[in-house]
Structures are given as structure tokens and as C-alpha cells.
Design brief:
By secondary structure, this protein is α+β, with helices and mostly antiparallel strands. It has a single domain, classed as Alpha-Beta Plaits, CATH 3.30.70. The strands form two sheets. Strands 2-5-1-6 form a four-stranded antiparallel beta sheet, covered by helices on one side. Strands 3-4 form a two-stranded antiparallel ribbon. β3 and β4 form a beta hairpin. The longest helix is centred in the first third of the chain and has 15 residues. The termini are close together. The mean pLDDT is 89.
């Protein structure tokens, strides 16, 4: 089964932010090491690195008109910070991998969603 792991940013400190700069070098190193380890897992297909949520443009169509809004539609604390795909034998393996993603323990969350197989 293939799963998409959606990384919800929450209050997770992200590189190039003030909160990130307040982390110790050891804490920053641990975050980088965790993501590196996850990326080296052969069952993981990494997603592309995303720009911060405030760079987003949200598109909606109402009454046949295309409307755009600068920034994410949801509050920034709920914005998607990234994603990856994981092929696993069961949901428990996907949950275990999700628990290793730093955002899951640093103020965010990781949504594990099975993909439709065709």
C-alpha cells in the first residue's frame, strides 16, 4: 500500500525563521539528521521542498469566476509544510515513519493517508 504523509507545519520552527534561529545547533542538527534518515529510506519517495506558506496563492472558483487570495487559505499554523510518499505493508509502518518526522513532535502533525491504487 502506498501512503502520502502530509506534514502540517503547525508551530514547528522552520529554517530561515526566528524560531529556528532560537534552536541550539544540536537541535537543528537533529532535525536535519531525522529528515536525512527518512529520505534515505528506500520505501520513501520525497516530495519537493516547498516555499513558506505565505508565498502561496489560493485559488477558488465561485459562480464561475476564478478568485485568488495571497497566502494559504487556512491559518498558517495549519498549512502543509511538506509531503512524502511511503510504500509500506500496513498503516502501522506508515504511522511509525510519520512519528519520526520532526514536525510531529515540534508543534505540527503528520497526516497519513492511503493512496488509491488503480
Amino acid at each position: 500500500m502506498k501512503y502520502m504523509l502530509l506534514i502540517h507545519q503547525g508551530t514547528t520552527p522552520t529554517p530561515r525563521s526566528e524560531d529556528w534561529e532560537r534552536l541550539s545547533e544540536a537541535e537543528k542538527g537533529a532535525v536535519y539528521a531525522a529528515y536525512k534518515s527518512i529520505g534515505e529510506n528506500p520505501a520513501v519517495t520525497p516530495g519537493a521542498e516547498m516555499q513558506p506558506p505565505e508565498t502561496a496563492t489560493t485559488v477558488q472558483v465561485k459562480d464561475g469566476r476564478t478568485l485568488t487570495t495571497d497566502g494559504p487559505f487556512v491559518e498558517v499554523k495549519e498549512a502543509i509544510g511538506g509531503y512524502l510518499f511511503f510504500e509500506a505493508g500496513d498503516i502501522d509502518a506508515a504511522i511509525e515513519l510519520a512519528s519520526q518526522i520532526p514536525a510531529a513532535r515540534m508543534g505540527g502533525a503528520v497526516e497519513v493517508r492511503p493512496l488509491v491504487e488503480r
